[in-house]
Specification:
Blueprint: E1 10-16, H1 19-32, E2 37-42, E3 54-61, H2 65-92
Antiparallel strand pairs: 1-3, 2-3
Helix pairs in contact: 1-2
């Protein structure tokens, strides 16, 4: 079995604090056969904590970045639209 490639460059293709969105993104990449790594990081400062406000990032090899972004494009746009809808509902109340 080959070990990890120390020269492998990773690219972030998805980032969210929503565990459902992260699960959908991971599932989409798995279905496409794209290997990925997930990291959980916390927003720091301004009252954010790693327990209350975790941010998950999905990274892929740079060679798979364009394919992964294509697969995740609809998910990213749906998340953006949901954020826009939530913001417009808040301002209309």
């Amino acid at each position: 079995m080959a070990g990890p490639d120390p020269t492998l460059k990773l690219a972030v293709v998805f980032e969210s604090a929503d565990p459902v969105a992260l699960g959908i993104a991971k599932s989409a990449l798995e279905d496409a056969g794209i290997e990925f790594a997930e990291t959980d990081e916390a927003l720091t400062g301004y009252g954010f904590s790693p327990i209350i406000n975790p941010v998950g990032r999905i990274q892929v090899a740079q060679s798979s970045e364009s394919q992964a972004l294509e697969i995740l494009r609809d998910l990213v746009h749906a998340a953006d639209e949901e954020t826009d809808d939530t913001a417009s509902e808040s301002t209309s109340e």
